[in-house]
C-alpha cells in the first residue's frame, strides 16, 4: 500500500503561485483581469512540476503521470462534458430566440422592482430542487444575463445573483452531493443537518433578497418591449422541469439541446446544417473553460502528491484547545481546502475524517460539524473566481470571473452568518443522534 506523502508547506504553493501571478499582473497593469486564467494556471502547473514530495524525488514522467491522473479524474471529465453540452444549449437557445423571448416576458410580467429579488428566489428554488449549483447555473445563466441590457444592470451583478441562488440549494438541498458528503462523514441525519443549516441560510438569503430590492433598475415601462413567443421558451421550461424531477444533469442538457434544435427547425430559425454549426459554436465557447477545469484537476493532484493538503490539515488542527476552537478550525480547514481545490464536495470529503476526530476530542456535536462543513465550503465555492460555478457563468456572459465574485452577496453573507453561528453556538442540540437517513 502506498504511504501518504509527508506534509510540507511547499506542496501547497502551486495554488498560491497561481494567485500571485494573477495579482501581480493586476497590480502592474491596474487591471486585475489582465492575466488570462488559463495562462496563469499553466504557469502554476509548470511550477508544480518543479517540486517534489518531502524527502523524495519523483521523475518528470511520474509527475506528469500524476498530473494527468488528476486532470483525467472522472469528476473532472464529467464536468467538461457538462460544460460542452451547456455551451451547445446556450448557442441553440440564443439562435432560436429563447433568451430574448424570456427577457421580454420577464419585463412584461414581473414588477420592475422585484425582477432581481425574483430571479434570486427562482434560482434558490431550482437549486434546492436539483441539489446542484452547476446545473442551476446551466439552466438559468442565459435568462439572468439576458436581463442585463433591459434593466440597465451590470451583467456581473446578475451573474452574482444567479451564483448566489445556486449556492443556496447546493448547501441546503437534501439531494446535494455536499449535503450527502457532510452527513455521511459525520454519521448524522439529513434532517438534523438541514435544521442546523436553515438557521444560517435563512438570514443570509433574506438579507440578500432585501439588498436586491434596493438595486436601481431601469423603468421597464419606458423600454420598448418586444413580443415573446412561448414556444421558443420551451427548452428552458423543459430543462427546469427535468431538473425538478431529479434527472441527471447530462440528460437534462441533452433534452434541452434536442428540444431547442427541433423548435429551431420547426419555426425556421435555422436550416439543418446551420443547426449543427450553432452547436459547434456553443461548444467552442466552452473549450477554454474545459481546459481550465482539466488543468486545475492536475494541479490539485500534484498538491496531494507533494503533501500540501496534508500540511494544511495538520497546521489548522495543531492548536485546538476548546469546543469553539475546534469548530473554528473545522470551518477554516474546509474553507482553505475549498480555496485549494476549488471543489466544495472534495473539500468536505477531505476534511470530514479530521473533523470527526475533533468532535470526539472536544465534544463538538456532529450535527453542528456537518452543518459547518457544508456552510463554509459552499460559501467559499460561491466566491472563488476559479471555481466551476463562477467560471461557468463568466464564460456564458463573457465576463471576468473576478468581477462576478464581487457581486456574490449571498455566499458572503453565508460566511458571515456561519461565523456568527459558531460564536453564539447556534443551533444548540440537546442530544446527539448518530443515525443517518442518507
From TrEMBL:
The lineage of its organism: Bacteria, Pseudomonadati, Pseudomonadota, Gammaproteobacteria, Alteromonadales. Belongs to the NhaC Na(+)/H(+) (TC 2.A.35) antiporter family. It comes from Alteromonas confluentis. Pfam families: Na_H_antiporter. Residues 165-424 form the Na+/H+ antiporter NhaC-like C-terminal domain. This is Sodium:proton antiporter. The keyword Transport applies. GO terms for molecular function: antiporter activity. It is found in: Cell membrane. It comes from the Bacteria. GO terms for cellular component: plasma membrane. Keywords: Antiport, Cell membrane, Membrane, Transmembrane, Transmembrane helix, Transport. It is a multi-pass membrane protein.
